[in-house]
Specification:
By secondary structure, the chain is α/β, with parallel strands linked by helices. It has a single domain, classed as Vaccinia Virus protein VP39 (Rossmann fold, 3-Layer(aba) Sandwich), CATH 3.40.50.150. Helix content is about 45%, strand content about 15%. The protein has seven helices and five strands, in the order ααααβαββαβαβ. The protein has a five-stranded parallel beta sheet, sandwiched between helices. Helix 5 links the parallel strand 1 and strand 2. Helix 3 crosses helix 4. The structure holds S-adenosylmethionine.
Length: about 210
């Protein structure tokens, strides 16, 4: 927590570059990235219906619980939104990765969407990293939203990305997709990106949650 506070303080001294952004739909984004990929959004929505219903129930149960507490260690808004979940699912269905690496799990919303796609693909392993940083966080709650039947393609490492990322890169032969969603400080993000970049297979996707 002290490290995090130091990094956040350091970020406040940095200037922020202006970015021009344009919102586009998931379909438009996928068409731009993969012009030859034919898909039906109806089919994708059908494929993710079960996991979406499961996640909806999980978060409904949490809604009225007290935060912070052992039962609700993270705010619900920490988790990925629905559209980003669909996008992650779709990217994993298109790329059919062997290896996906994700930093930042919390309840496991992004993790569950990726695992659902790997399950549908019948191939691939997801390596995720997270840890407990505050007194109310526990290992049991990390990934608690992930259905048990999807965990056979999941390798979880408990620790900081600084202590775990290199080990994962050593045991995997290049990664197909990297997702950063841990500590969004300049220092941590540059560490993760610089560490992972040489291991990302050519032409594949690197995805940052914002
Ligand atoms: C925004 S949440 C992740 C949300 C998740 N991707 C989802 O969609 O539900 C950020 C997570 O990063 C973890 N985290 C923060 N700093 C970290 C670090 N240095 N190493 C690993 N995980 C970290 C936190 O414990 C928290 O669970």
């Amino acid at each position: 927590m002290i490290q995090t506070a130091k990094q956040v303080k350091d970020d406040k001294k940095r200037s922020i570059q202006k970015q021009i952004t344009k919102s586009i739909t998931i379909e438009e984004g996928i068409k731009q990235l993969f012009p030859n990929y034919k898909f039906s959004m109806e089919q994708i929505k059908h494929e993710i219906k079960e996991i979406e219903t499961h996640l909806e129930k999980f978060f409904m149960n949490l809604k009225d619980k007290e935060f912070p507490s052992k039962e609700k260690p993270y705010p619900i808004a920490y988790s990925l939104d629905n559209d980003s979940g669909i996008l992650l699912y779709l990217l994993c269905r298109i790329i059919k990765p062997n290896i996906v690496v994700e930093t930042g799990v919390a309840y496991g919303r992004s993790t569950a969407c990726i695992l659902q796609a790997l399950n549908e693909n019948e191939k691939g392993t997801l390596y995720s990293i997270d840890s407990t940083f505050r007194p109310w966080e526990t290992k049991e709650m990390i990934g608690s939203a992930i259905p048990e039947n999807l965990k056979n393609r999941w390798e979880f490492s408990q620790g900081t990305t600084r202590s775990k990322l290199k080990n994962i890169l050593e045991i995997t032969d290049g990664i197909d997709i990297f997702i950063h969603d841990s500590l969004h400080t300049y220092q941590n993000m540059t560490y993760e990106f610089n560490t992972v970049w040489p291991h990302i297979k050519k032409m594949d996707i690197y995805f940052r949650m914002i």
